[in-house]
Design a protein that fits this description.
CATH topology of one domain in chain B: MetI-like fold
Strand order of the largest sheet of chain B: 1-2
CATH class of the largest domain in chain A: Alpha Beta
Distance between the termini of chain A: 54 Å
Largest sheet of chain B: 2 strands, antiparallel
Mean pLDDT of chain B: 80
Strand content of chain A: 15-25%
Structural class of chain B: mainly alpha
Number of strands of chain A: 25
Oligomer: heterodimer
CATH superfamily of the largest domain in chain A: Dipeptide-binding Protein, Domain 1
Chain lengths: 658, 332
């Protein structure tokens, strides 16, 4: 039995480390936080002390689990703090409070800062053959209302929710299925549960650690009152009527939105719980008195007593940030606000930091291989055409003009930080070469031109490419403006067509769009054990082959079966990856996929590595100087554990006096 | 008179029914429904939604029913005082709107008062001193106010209020007072923030009002009864205030019809820029996210207020100016 220290530093910067490496089939791997051995003397949290004195809450040593998670501050620039203070942040819409689930980032299994998966809410977990997962809860762990968190909460989710016809007519969540097979679920004892499949499930743990995670447990003691199998039928019926739901399933859903965080009564395991009912302009999140993490000095986390979310229109959030009305802000501010914020930094007590992003491309073009127009479809499916379009983009100019030369030019592929990176993946067909582009288009037989110099399609129409944009930021249209100039030199006329997001999406799904512009790969720093699903046709929202994606997403029930060799190959490779456990074999498959992508140019990346401004109040400590800002994996600030952020004494006093 | 009022009230019923149908159709016109826009929003942040679950939610929200049925559920509910359910907030529409109406009312009434207080003296001055330097100067200022885009002025004022006075950006009060009970400090904070939207929304209205007062007054000033009054030696101020100004006010009363819905809807764009907790931004957002019952009920409320407003202004005009008759009838 091998064990692994979760706090090991990664050699390759922030590359995603191997997670499920199975050198021999029979091995069982235990993942546990070894640091949990010595439990320090606990100190009562000042914010909760009055409630403890009045007897409303048990003392801190009884509130934390028997085996708490002990956070150590061994990274440079981090240190243990003192509890107290109110953290203010800005959001644009009331429903953005769901981000507190993301920032809180208490997960059964979570990514650490080096993107290793480690137990978090769980005390430890064991994996056998990549298909049998045994999860050990922390004995004595409690929900935010003080009720025990046990195996019953898992059983309730599995048996009473995901297998219930009324609550989940759509069946169990996708990451719990391996090729359609449901897991075998067992309750071993009060604090141990087991999920097992007949084949390896690679999606399970990453889904548990996601920014919007897979919830396989529920506060059963609270939700049973809304469940037909447990509740008194009369009371339930009255509640359904009162809340205007169609049936009890609707009511259960409304009360059970763990992710949305909009039900102040719903017990949670996150560091802060919501106390504000909708509708409101200001949401107050208060520390969870039963939270499972403590620091080495015996302070229960989170350090920050309250998180206050103020709602303001998205357009004035950058201005408000510049006026120091937030303590921690990254959402709704963009790279183009950097200079403004940097100037405001001099007047106010905050620091503007630049964090890295790990998207494959800041903006990428998606030729729609499922276009409805037969003439255009043939042209778009011709690899020479896609290569020519890519070659006719002056990425250097775009980088200089729009990103102050701070971005990196290249394809929508893996980034240098990934162990799978090879220069040819980024550079293939990504240089600026108009001559070659023109030559490729001539080869295709598109030699006829009209008097503007625009090439003609085989049926005589001018080659006017309409690019769909979601039309939300000027960034995309600025980039398109520059691309338009150089494409015209290759004889392709570009028009951009802004539409609303949902219209945009539906146009792509229906095959009405020729080319669309969106951001690139969401995780461009994979390792061999990260799923290559994003690179293969797997989902309908893949803008370059929406209908092929839908075909695989619905297991062939709808969508279009791929009839292009490259796409079929990708699907086959993805399947092969899923059915092997061998890291070397997986790496080989990955390289084949990446090679295929760089040759086929299914998506045309423009620039990547654009940084993200993060504004941090100077009184707030433990926020890293440089980090990675990403949705999944990363959970925005989540992997940096916002529960360990603390305020200076001056600020804590100020907040206390208010 | 009573018969006339009853007649008008009866006509309001088919009008409102027609409006409700049009409103419902208009809201349904954009492709997709609330769930589509919700999914789109999630996806733009990189979040994913299970398509099977969407189907389930669609049934829960009642989107699987035919449009006609959805319309009747909503329309009949409204008659019983049930305005439907806001998907975005997960609450009945009345609960969502309730809080905001008061602040909207406050902003609008203050703005209207501001516009009147500023524009009346200026309008009167411009009319009595036609083509003087004063007239030109004030007209110029007024047009400047009309021509400056509201949202731009709003941003500029926000910036200066923040840099010079340290007022927090946007909103109607400092953040710590939001959702708190009313207190003296809260009122002060509201006053500190209120002047920006009032000035911004007011400037455009002021210019318009000045021109109208001026034009109407000029029409009257030429008339013989004014000359007679002057000839009889009535004090110049009294001449203007007592007779021509009163007549010039007619346009003003007929404006009440459009004023009433304006008071509730607020100036949506400015409110969005200033992030005011009024109903305007909420209406806009509900239309964007296709939160159909919230948007629909809002528009119905505005339509009802317009219809009532028009009735009130007609009645008030009749009371104010005996020359106006409500019923066609035979002139004796």
């Amino acid at each position: 039995m091998a064990s692994c220290d979760s706090r090991r530093r990664s050699a390759s910067g922030f590359a995603l480390r191997a997670l499920l490496t199975f050198s021999s089939i029979a091995a069982v791997f235990t993942y546990a936080n070894l640091a949990s051995a010595a439990k320090p003397q606990m100190v009562e949290t000042p914010f909760l002390a009055p409630a403890v004195e009045r007897g409303e809450l048990p003392p801190v040593s009884d509130r934390i689990p028997d085996v708490p998670s002990i956070v150590r501050f061994d990274q440079p620039g981090r240190s243990a703090g003192k509890p107290g203070g109110d953290l203010e942040t800005l959001m644009a819409k009331p429903k953005d409070v769901r981000l507190m689930t993301v920032y809180g980032y208490a997960r059964l299994v979570a990514y650490d800062e080096d993107f290793n998966l480690v137990p978090d809410l769980l005390e430890r977990f064991e994996i056998k053959e990549g298909r049998i997962f045994t999860l050990h809860l922390r004995p004595g762990h409690k929900w935010s209302d003080g009720a025990p968190f046990t195996a019953e909460d898992f059983r309730y989710f599995w048996e009473d929710m995901s297998l219930n016809e009324a609550l989940a007519p759509f069946g169990p969540p996708k990451p719990l299925l391996v090729d359609g097979e449901r897991p075998k679920f067992e309750v071993i004892d009060e604090t141990t549960v087991r999920f097992s499949w007949s084949q390896p499930n690679t999606a399970f743990l990453p889904a548990l650690a996601g920014a919007a995670p897979l919830w396989i447990y529920r506060p059963s003691h609270y939700l049973k009152q809304f469940h037909a199998a447990y509740a008194d039928p009369k009371t339930l019926k009255a509640m359904v009527k009162e809340t205007r739901q169609r049936n009890w399933a609707g009511l259960h859903h409304r009360r059970d939105r763990q992710y949305r965080f909009d039900n102040p009564v719903l017990p949670t395991l996150q560091p802060w719980y919501n106390t504000t009912d909708l509708p409101a302009e200001r949401f107050i999140f208060v520390r969870n008195p039963f939270y499972h993490r403590i620091d080495e000095n015996g302070h229960q986390l989170p350090y920050v007593d309250r998180v206050i979310i103020k709602i303001a229109d998205a357009k004035i959030i950058p201005a408000k940030t510049g006026a120091s009305e937030t303590d921690l802000q990254a959402r709704y501010i963009r790279f183009d606000h950097f200079t403004f914020l940097k100037r405001a930094e001099k007047r106010h007590n905050f620091d503007v930091r630049l964090w890295r992003t790990i998207k494959g491309a800041q903006v990428a073009l998606y030729p729609n291989l499922n276009n409805r127009d037969p003439v255009w479809r043939e042209v778009l499916r011709d690899v020479r055409f896609r290569r020519a379009l890519s070659l006719a983009i002056d990425r250097h100019e775009i980088n200089q003009v729009i990103y102050y030369g701070l971005a990196r030019e290249g394809n929508n592929s893996v980034l240098e930080e990934s162990p799978l990176f090879r220069p040819e993946y980024r550079n293939g067909w990504a240089s600026f070469d108009l001559e070659k582009a023109n030559q490729l288009l001539d080869e295709m037989g598109l030699t006829e031109r009209d008097d503007r110099g625009v090439r003609l399609l085989p049926d005589g129409r001018p080659m006017e490419l309409i690019i769909d944009t979601a039309g939300e930021s000027t960034e995309e249209t600025d980039v398109l403006e520059l691309i338009s100039d150089s494409w015209l030199k290759a004889g392709v006329k570009l028009y951009s067509r802004p539409s609303q997001r949902e219209v945009f999406r539906n146009r792509v799904y229906a095959g009405e769009s020729l080319l669309s512009i969106w951001s690139g790969l969401s995780n461009a720093v994979p390792n061999a054990d990260t799923s290559p699903a994003e690179f293969a046709p797997t989902e309908q929202d893949q803008l370059q082959w929406s209908k092929f994606g839908k075909y695989y997403q619905t297991s062939g029930q709808s969508g279009v079966k791929p009839d292009i060799q490259g796409v079929v190959d990708l699907a086959t490779l993805h399947d092969a990856w899923r059915h092997t456990n061998d890291t070397e074999e997986r790496a080989r498959i990955w390289h084949e996929i990446l090679k295929l992508h760089s040759e086929q140019i299914f998506t045309i990346g423009v620039v990547n590595g654009v940084q993200r401004p993060v504004v941090v109040n100077n009184e707030l400590k433990n926020v890293p100087e440089v980090g990675v800002y990403n949705w999944d994996p990363g959970a925005a600030f989540g992997v940096y554990k916002p529960d360990t952020f603390w305020f200076t004494e001056a600020r804590r006093k100020r907040d206390q006096s208010q | 008179m009573i018969r006339y009022v009853i007649q008008r009230l009866l006509i309001m019923i088919p009008t409102l029914i027609a409006i409700s149908a049009i409103v419902f159709i208009l809201i349904q016109l954009p492709p997709g429904d609330y769930l589509d826009s919700y999914i789109a929003e999630l996806q733009s942040q990189g979040e994913k939604v299970d398509p099977k679950k969407i189907k389930f939610l669609r049934e829960q929200y009642g989107f699987d029913k035919p449009l006609i049925e959805q319309y009747f559920v909503w329309a009949i509910g409204m008659l019983q005082g049930d305005f439907g359910y806001s998907f975005e907030y997960g609450l009945p529409v009345t609960d969502v709107v309730g809080d905001r109406v008061f602040l909207t009312f406050l902003v609008s009434v203050t703005t209207i008062a501001f516009a009147w207080i500023v524009s009346f003296p200026i309008g009167v001055y411009s009319a009595t001193h036609q083509y003087s330097w004063g007239d030109y100067g004030l007209t110029f200022l007024g047009f400047l106010g009309l021509a400056t885009p509201n949202f731009l002025l709003a941003l500029v004022l926000l910036y200066f209020a923040n840099v010079v006075f340290g007022t927090s950006i946007g909103g109607l009060m400092d953040p710590e007072y939001i959702d708190q009970p009313w207190s003296f400090d809260k009122v002060l904070s509201v006053l500190e923030h209120l002047w920006i939207p009032v000035v911004v929304i007011g400037t455009a209205g002021t210019a318009e009002m000045i021109r109208r007062v001026r034009a109407n007054l000029l029409d009257e000033l030429q008339k013989q009864y004014v000359i007679t009054a002057r000839a009889k030696g009535l004090a110049p101020t009294k001449v203007i205030l007592k007779y021509p100004l009163r007549v010039a006010l007619n346009f003003f009363v007929s404006d009440v019809g459009s004023l009433l819905p304006g008071v509730i809807s607020g100036s949506a764009i400015v409110s969005v820029v200033l992030s005011l907790p009024t109903t305007g931004p909420m209406l806009l957002e509900s239309l964007r996210s296709q939160d159909m019952y919230l948007a629909g009920s809002f528009l119905m409320l505005l339509a009802t207020l317009t219809v009532i407003g028009v009735l009130i202004s007609d009645l008030a005009l009749a009371a104010l100016d005996p020359r106006i008759r409500l019923e066609g009838g035979i002139t004796r």
